[in-house]
Each structure stands twice: as structure tokens, then as C-alpha cells.
Specification:
The protein has helices at 4-16, 20-33, 38-69. By secondary structure, the protein is mostly helical.
């Protein structure tokens, strides 16, 4: 049997290292086995939010660098 707690734990370790895609993969895997696992749902939402924030910050930094250095 798949251990959803282990999958969630691996996801949390990946998230702690900022590995958002890997964390999301593990949280989704846990939820595929047990769609009612509330902790994995919460962790998935948080990891997705962090991934989107990181992407937004990278885009903002890139635009700021381009405007500071010219076209």
C-alpha cells in the first residue's frame, strides 16, 4: 500500500529546499492515493502559492534588470 504520510513528508522536504515542482508532484501523488488527506491539500496549496510567487519575483527582477540596462 502507498504511504500517503511518507509522500507528504517527501513533499515537505522538497518544499523546504524550494523545490516547488518536486514538492507539488509528491503532494499530488499523496492526494491521488487519498483525496481526503487534508494536510497534503494544505501543503499542495502552499507549495503552489510559493511557486507562483517565485515565478512572479523572477519575472519582476528580469523586467527591472532590462529597464535598468536598456532595451
Amino acid at each position: 500500500k502507498d504511504d500517503v504520510f511518507a509522500m507528504d513528508s517527501v513533499g515537505r522536504l522538497e518544499a523546504a529546499q524550494g523545490q516547488w515542482d518536486q514538492a507539488i508532484f509528491w503532494f499530488n501523488k499523496a492526494l491521488a492515493v487519498n483525496p481526503n488527506f487534508a494536510a497534503a491539500k494544505t501543503h499542495l496549496v502552499n507549495a503552489t502559492r510559493h511557486k507562483l510567487e517565485a515565478a512572479t519575483q523572477a519575472t519582476t527582477r528580469s523586467a527591472t534588470t532590462r529597464s535598468a540596462t536598456g532595451p
